[in-house]
Amino acid sequence: TAPNAGLGRSSSSSSVAAPIPACVSEIHERPAEKPQNVSEVHCTAGQNGAGKSTLIKILTGAETRDAGEYLVRGTPMRGTVSPADARAAGLGVVYQELSLMPELSVSSNLCMGAFPSRAGVRDLRRQRAVAAEMLPRVGLSDVDPDVLVSQLPTARRQLVEIAESLTHSAR
């Protein structure tokens, strides 16, 4: 059996689970070599059906893994990982299909799931401040946090989606 067998999914018990691409085992940080202000981008590449989407879903808690383990910054992730656990560990994902809500503002989308509040009431001033802090990180310093996402072109929506992932401390 392949060392990563069991992480993939199959619809038939007689099928062999798709092994995780070998490049995945090479994803790691080298803090001593990386300046503090530099970010890294990793990708997973493979043929259709190779298990790329399943891997991402497992890492981010959208699906439960069958076997194996993985570490985030040297800390083992427990057997059952929820999306909240993955976010807390700094894992974020931006899917090809955007998950933004087009009829809400950019700032509302950026704070979705973690709206700033004061005495139980959403704090719109802080929400705008969060957006104003995050948008320049992805090259959108000229975007008004109050503009509706539906008014942005697709390329800018994708950048808002990336900013949303970074808002939740994704590394």
Description of the molecule:
The protein has 171 residues and is mainly alpha-helical. It is built from five helices and four strands. It has helices at 52-59, 83-88, 106-110, 124-134, 154-167, and strands spanning 71-72, 75-76, 117-118, 121-122. Strands 1-2 form a two-stranded antiparallel sheet. The chain has a two-stranded antiparallel ribbon with strand order 3-4. The longest helix has 14 residues, at 154-167. The protein is globular. 20% of the residues are buried.
Order of strands in the sheet with the most strands? 1-2
Distance between the termini: 33 Å
List low-confidence stretches: 1-30
Mean pLDDT: 77
Descriptors for this entry?
171 residues, globular, 5% strand, mainly alpha, disordered N terminus, two-stranded antiparallel sheet
A few lines on this structure:
With 171 residues, the protein is mainly alpha-helical. The chain is built from five helices and four strands. The strands form two sheets. A two-stranded antiparallel sheet has the order 1-2. It has a two-stranded antiparallel sheet with strand order 3-4.
Topology:
Elements: H1 52-59, E1 71-72, E2 75-76, H2 83-88, H3 106-110, E3 117-118, E4 121-122, H4 124-134, H5 154-167
Antiparallel strand pairs: 1-2, 3-4
